[in-house]
Amino acid sequence: MPRLARIDLADHFYHVINRANGRMQIFNEQEDYLLFEKLLTEAKELTDMRILAYVIMPNHWHLVLSPRNDGDLGLFMHRLTNAHTRHVHVKTKTIGSGHLYQGRYKSFIVDSDNYLVALIKYVERNPVRAKLVRACENWRWGSAWRRINGNPKQKKLLDPSPVALPHGYTHWINTPDKEDDLSTIRHSLNKGTPYGRERWVDTMVTRHHLESTQRSAGRPKKI
User: Which secondary structure element, helix H or strand E, spans residue 63, and what is its range?
Assistant: First the structure.
């Protein structure tokens, strides 16, 4: 089966995800999470990538990114995943034993406005939905913790969202996702579709020669 076309354009928004091979747990202790955040910072500095949100889960991670130049998304992700794979294999003495990740990372172009805000909420609420914590800011390994509990230096990893997050952010992020938003974002993840307004999705599919199956994309209600 041919690979889906990958969009890598400046000043767009992307939902990026990858999982460990066989869904094994690759983040087991604080040192593992700290390493990934260090590599995230280094990749950001190399490419001047805008990181709008992220979360590191025990066996996968999500990023919300916005590159400044065409091609920067691929550059950023190549640096991040290759460096992480090398470090983990060295630490675990498993060099040459196989892949760390289940495959190449997945990236989905995202519409702006309500769609971007809904995606940020989806990403930051992952640990709560997984019942790892009761409040988003209690999960140390994500952007919600940095926004609420981080010091100025820690907050520098994050770039301001071009669409303002809701007033009363802490309350908002700790209210459940809307079911429509959850289902359409998950549809985007499962089917490899752009995430946004119907007309915008059709434009992306046509303009970038994506497969026709990508036309069925998520369209959440206004928030």
Answer: strand 60-66
